[in-house]
UniProtKB/TrEMBL annotation, chain A:
Name this protein carries in UniProt: Uncharacterized protein
Domain of life: Bacteria
Source species taxonomy: Bacteria, Pseudomonadati, Myxococcota, Myxococcia, Myxococcales
Automatic annotation (TrEMBL), chain B:
A GO-annotated cellular component: plasma membrane
Native source species: Corallococcus sicarius
Key words, A-Z: Cell inner membrane, Cell membrane, Glycosyltransferase, Membrane, Transferase, Transmembrane, Transmembrane helix
Record protein name field: Glucans biosynthesis glucosyltransferase H
Molecular function (Gene Ontology), one example: hexosyltransferase activity
Domain Glycosyltransferase 2-like: start-end pairs: 197-392
Length: 169, 674
């Protein structure tokens, strides 16, 4: 994914009839993983995801929609270098580590470019980078002839026998 | 400062002096012993005693002349030849190569580990050369709680120092090859990104300017494969540890300078607080697996000596550079923890016996293997020597027509015994042990500032005397411990290569009696035998007997931090690092005291704490690790079926390795239907 999709955001959630309970629960679980715990925040975020869509949306479909929305938000905050299959997991970790939920649901619902630059930088710097890219090579096992004198005797007695060397791993 | 490149010819006169004098001294002592033993003709058991004595004496003679060489080296204020040191301009310039600073860990206290990493990191940053270094914590932790706590500690460290992208954390789920395997895994994945590898231990601490100097020396000396900076014991409070720290501060410099002076570019590597040249390390230091079963076969346990030997075999030099300083580690808190560490090292060193004759190694590498073996085998040799001496005397009694009175007259204290000659030999042996200590003491006394930082000259001398008394009393117990380890290894007992105890906790009397009961019993037997057979020897053996009788009390009292701190308040066993601690030590102490959020149950923590959950899943996603399908299946059965049966450690680890199960479980815990 090279291009970044900008998502429409809602600065307020219009009063709407309630969605399916299981859908709402699934969305709340999704946002609990971002560190949101307040009932108000969770409801607003669920509404943000569902928007004006069909209220009978299944939990799976709602979660896919939530992921799509949040990934879009994260892609804009973190920049294209982080876009990839692990964007959501890494971005969520960065969001949680920086304590993003303290800023209430608004922070996710706002257009990323309107967020304070320092805050965006803090999120970027919090993306866990456990290790840099690998440059694989092989550390070859060294062969040691453990007793060269005995090896000479062995070769003399049994030229085809097994050498007294350290075996392979 | 340009220096002539290292060549074996540089080392030859130094080695001839040290080894030649050690051989000469041993020869004299051997002749004197033969004269004492052969007063009435030499028997076969006496020849055996003589052979043992020669081996044991050679060992202390080598240590003695090494100490003297160290004293001369320190007094001359010169650097060993063969290593090129930077000029002032070079020292002020930027580093041109990149270094990975790695700390392999295994079920350690994360608060202490990450405090040390942070203190070293900040110290390197303060030099202005941070750009040339990356830091890696390489975890082999098997305890799930340690694993999750490490992840959180790493994340917190990165946050504190803004270290994302410069401080890395990697955990292996498969601990093949233990610490050496851990390092090899690192080298195979990321080694090619770096020119040098600086290895730290879990309790290591290094000052930034020393780290930078090590990297610069490697840049300036392309033939150098390994530079080892001897670590100094610091940072503990128990009496035992403070005695170790004090002894290391007084005698350590002499020993290290001596080894550096006569071994030059054929020195040894001690496994940590050392910098290695990455390319030859990858190319030439892949450890072999030894033929046969443990304890002698299998994966090499003490990898450092072997890596140094392989590096030397490949034509790269190995240096001991004590003058760099700024290299620290923590001693074990008590005698039993010290013995536990010795047990691991003992098996590791004995395993090197099979490599002494290996083809293509430098003679000094063979010598390092032999010295490593002797550092543990010396104890049983002394023990066998003592027992054989008694046996030789009894043999003479049984096979010569003498009365008990006649027999006793040939033993120490008896009329027919050359007491003056025996005393001369004993005095020579004690001098061999004590003179290097006194030379070390002399060097400190000669430096007014250093002496003042160690409690002043009077308390310094008093501390040396007290340390001498305590170490003399501990020596028989250590001799028995080490003999036990050596015989145990020879008989095929395996050692569990677990992490070292590093906390200052009081030792219960029950534990001390349990561990020392046989030592006390041996003391009783030895005393009874001596009184019955040769009462004249009682005075000679009293330090041994007393040491064995008092073993539990010595262990318990020296394990107390309260006594260590009491001695510190009275200016005893002080080291300058306690009086005027370097910044890196102060910082590490502060950070360790801050502590970390405890992780009582790893799985619970990952499921209930959003921070731990998000971080753990992100790290799993970045570096997926293979789990154990069987353990995961049984864990899922238990957890998802709501069973009350607790998870086994393997099941817990399997769940922590499976992102899907974790997400599912978290949803259930939070009462959410996915």
């Amino acid at each position: 994914m090279d291009s970044v999709t900008t998502h429409p955001f809602l600065s307020f959630a219009p009063e709407m009839p309630q969605a399916r309970a299981d859908t709402r629960e699934a969305l709340e679980g999704f946002f609990l993983d971002f560190g949101f715990t307040g009932r108000g925040d969770l409801e607003r975020l669920a509404n943000w995801v569902l928007g004006t869509r069909e209220l009978s949306l299944s939990p799976e479909a709602a979660l896919a929609l939530a992921r799509w929305r949040v990934e879009g938000w994260l892609a804009e905050v973190l920049g294209p270098s982080h876009v990839g299959p692990s964007l959501l997991v890494k971005g969520r970790a960065a969001f949680v580590l920086v304590g993003g939920a303290r800023w209430s649901a608004d922070v996710l619902m706002r257009e990323p470019r309107t967020l304070p630059e320092a805050w965006r930088r803090a999120v970027c710097e919090s993306v866990p980078v456990a290790a840099p890219a690998e440059v694989p090579c092989q550390m070859r096992e060294q062969v040691l002839v453990l007793n060269p004198f005995m090896e000479l005797v062995r070769r003399w007695l049994r030229p085809a026998g097994r050498a007294d060397v350290s075996p392979s791993r | 400062m340009n220096a002539e490149p290292y060549s074996p010819a540089m080392a030859r006169p130094r080695r001839i002096m040290v080894l030649g004098l050690a051989a000469l001294t041993t020869g004299f002592a051997c002749v004197e012993m033969h004269r004492l033993l052969g007063a009435r003709g030499t028997t076969v058991p006496e020849l055996f005693v003589l052979a043992l004595f020669t081996l044991c004496f050679a060992w202390i003679a080598l240590s003695f002349w090494g100490g003297v060489a160290g004293f001369i080296q320190l007094v001359s204020h010169s650097r060993v030849p063969g290593l090129r040191w930077p000029t002032e301009d070079e020292a002020a310039g930027p580093l041109t190569r990149r270094t990975a600073v790695v700390m392999p860990i295994h079920n350690e206290d994360p608060a202490s580990v990450f405090a040390h990493v942070q203190a070293t990191y900040e110290s390197v940053a303060a030099t202005g050369h941070l750009e040339s270094f990356d830091f890696y914590v390489l975890s082999d932790s098997t305890r799930a709680e340690a694993w999750v706590a490490e992840e959180l500690a790493w994340s917190e460290l990165c946050r504190r120092v803004n270290g994302q992208g410069r401080i890395f954390y990697r955990r292996r789920s498969d601990n093949t090859g233990k610490k050496a395997g851990n390092l090899a895994d690192f080298c195979e994945r990321w080694g090619r990104r770096y020119d040098f590898l600086l290895v730290l231990d879990a309790d290591s601490l290094m000052a930034g300017d020393s780290v930078v100097k090590m990297a610069r020396l490697m840049e300036l000396n392309p033939g150098a494969g390994i530079l080892q900076v001897p670590p100094q014991n610091v940072g503990r409070s128990t009496l035992f540890a403070r005695l170790q720290q004090f002894a290391g501060r007084i005698y350590g410099p002499i020993v290290a300078a001596g080894a550096a002076a006569w071994q030059l570019g054929d020195s040894n590597y001690w496994g940590h607080n050392a910098i290695l040249r990455m390319a030859p390390f990858i190319e030439h230091c892949g450890l072999p697996v030894l033929p046969g079963q443990q304890p002698f076969g299998g994966h090499i346990l003490s990898h450092d000596f072997v890596e140094a030997a392989l590096m030397r075999r490949a034509g790269f030099t190995v240096w001991l550079v004590p003058e760099l300083g700024g290299s620290y580690e923590q001693p074990p808190p008590d005698l039993l923890a010290y013995a536990q560490r010795d047990r691991r090292w003992c098996q590791g060193n004995l395993q090197h016996l099979g490599l002494v004759m290996a083809g293509g190694l430098h003679p000094m590498s063979r010598m390092h293997f032999t010295m490593g073996v002797m550092s543990y085998v010396a104890s049983p040799l002394w023990l066998i020597f003592l027992v054989s001496g008694l046996f030789a005397a009894l043999h003479e009694w049984f096979f010569s027509p003498a009365t008990l009175v006649d027999f006793q007259s040939t033993l120490p204290g008896g009329a027919a015994f050359d007491t003056a000659g025996a005393l001369r030999l004993m005095a020579a042996s004690l001098a061999m042990l004590w003179i290097p200590r006194l030379l070390g003491l002399g060097l400190v006394l000669a430096d007014r500032d250093e002496a003042a930082q160690m409690g002043g000259r009077f308390k310094l001398v008093l501390s040396v005397a007290l340390e001498g008394v305590v170490s003399t009393l501990m020596a028989p117990v250590m001799m028995l411990f080490q003999s036990h380890f050596v015989f145990g290894t020879l008989l095929g007992y395996r050692v569990t290569w677990s992490s070292q105890q590093r906390e200052d906790t009081d030792l219960p009397w029950s534990e001390a009696f349990r561990r020392h009961k046989w030592h006390m019993a041996m003391g009783v037997v030895l005393a009874a035998l001596t009184v019955a057979v040769a009462p004249g020897m009682l005075a000679w053996l009293s330090p041994v007997i007393l040491g064995l009788w008092l073993a539990p009390a010595i262990s318990v009292f020296t394990a107390r931090a309260s006594l260590g701190l009491w001695a510190q308040r009275r200016g005893l066993f002080l080291i300058p690092e306690e009086v005027a601690p370097p910044t890196v030590l102060v910082r590490a102490q502060e950070l360790s005291e801050e502590g970390l959020e405890p992780v009582d149950d790893a799985l619970d923590h990952v499921l209930m704490d959003p921070r731990a959950h998000a971080l753990h899943l992100a790290l799993l996603e970045a570096h997926p690790m293979a789990g154990v399908p069987g353990a995961l299946a049984s864990a899922r059965r238990k957890l998802l079926a709501g069973a009350v049966e607790p998870l086994s450690p393997q099941e817990k680890s399997a769940v922590l390795l499976d992102a899907r199960t974790l997400s599912e479980l978290r949803g259930r815990r939070l009462g959410v239907r996915a």
